[in-house]
From TrEMBL:
Pfam families: TctC. The keyword Signal applies. PANTHER family: BLR1237 PROTEIN (PTHR42928:SF5), TRICARBOXYLATE-BINDING PROTEIN (PTHR42928). Transmembrane segments: none annotated. Coiled coil: none annotated. This is Tripartite-type tricarboxylate transporter receptor subunit TctC.
């Protein structure tokens, strides 16, 4: 009787364990290896902060240890290359974006990775650019800016993060759309560009809204590169409502995995990531940084990558921009 009772208890315990295991996602029952989210930028920056919130949320959702590893350098190429070469076993992901992924691939023929080096996991969020001028320019609308540019007869200077950056390419689209000559001036970072802009040593900038609005005494935001007005910035018109829908653009942030990562894994990570982005804490950080939620699965990111090929690719080809 004792042996029978003991066997019964063991069987019952195993039944409970199995029922719990069956209820867990397959990925949550992983081999215990930590999941690594690679950030292709230095620690302490905006993307790093987003990555750590994301890691915490995914870890809680999947019951896995998730760490953030910063691999900065070469305009995001070092971090992206690392992930492209990683084993597709579901333990390594890239917090990628417009620059490290799309623009690098479209601009650099000798790059060690391409669009087919990654599997799309989840789109997370994107952000608008601004058309901003110094208040000293005396321009208060896009129409006034166009009139000013045509009247001066001299190219207006706009700050960029270097040749082929989002701000550089966007300036080329603005120049063509407005029919005014613009000259790009490269800076090491956006803070340096804003200092010069506020001092009147530049004419335009296309950075994100928050730092521009924080310096409203010296800077005037004329428009956002959006289809509609943002609820976060209701007093700033969109380029579309001003009659320039071709100026609508954004820079996105998403999760990607090495090519060949099992779909069962990427789908579970995508679900956990999207749930995290929709939390109150994450939403607040998005607002604080002027970003817009765009949570979606692999199909949403695939569509974005295709749009980048078509839109940014056209600008790059028209201007014959190649970076070696």
């Amino acid at each position: 009787m004792r042996h029978i009772k003991r066997r019964t208890l063991i069987a019952a315990a195993l039944s409970v364990v199995m029922s719990i295991a069956i209820g867990l996602p397959a990925y949550a029952q992983g081999d215990g290896k930590p999941i690594t989210i690679v950030v292709p930028y230095a620690a302490g920056g905006t993307n790093d902060n987003f990555a750590r919130l994301l890691a915490d949320g995914i870890g809680k959702e999947l019951g896995r240890h998730v760490i953030v590893e910063n691999k900065p350098g070469a305009n995001g190429i070092i971090g992206a290359s690392y992930v492209a070469r990683a084993r597709p076993d579901g333990t390594t992901f890239l917090l990628g974006g417009s620059g490290p992924v799309s623009l690098n691939i479209l601009l650099r023929p000798s790059l060690p990775y391409g669009f087919d080096s990654f599997d799309s996991v989840a789109m997370l969020f994107d952000g608008p650019l601004t058309i901003t001028v110094p208040t000293s320019l005396g321009v208060n609308s896009v129409d006034e800016l166009v009139a000013y540019g045509k009247k001066t007869g001299q190219p207006l200077l706009y700050g960029t993060m270097g040749p082929g950056s989002v701000s550089d390419l966007y300036g080329r689209i603005v120049s063509k759309t407005f029919g005014i000559p613009l000259t790009a001036v490269a800076y090491k970072n956006n803070n340096s560009a804003l200092i010069d802009l506020m001092a009147g040593r530049g004419d335009m900038n296309y950075a994100t809204p928050v730092p521009m609005i924080q310096n409203a005494k010296n800077l005037k935001v004329l428009a956002l590169s959006t289809e509609k007005r943002s609820s976060h910035f209701p007093n700033i018109p969109s380029v579309a409502e001003l009659g320039y829908p071709q100026l609508k653009t954004s820079y996105w942030t998403a999760l990607l995995a090495p090519k060949g990562t099992p779909a069962a894994i990427t789908n579970e990570v995508a679900a956990a990531a999207m749930k995290t982005v929709k939390t109150k804490a994450f939403q607040q950080v998005l607002i604080d940084n002027g970003q817009i939620e765009k949570a979606g699965g692999p199909q949403v990111l695939d569509a974005q990558l295709q749009a980048d090929r078509e839109n940014w690719g056209k600008v790059i080809n028209e201007n014959k921009i190649v970076i070696n």
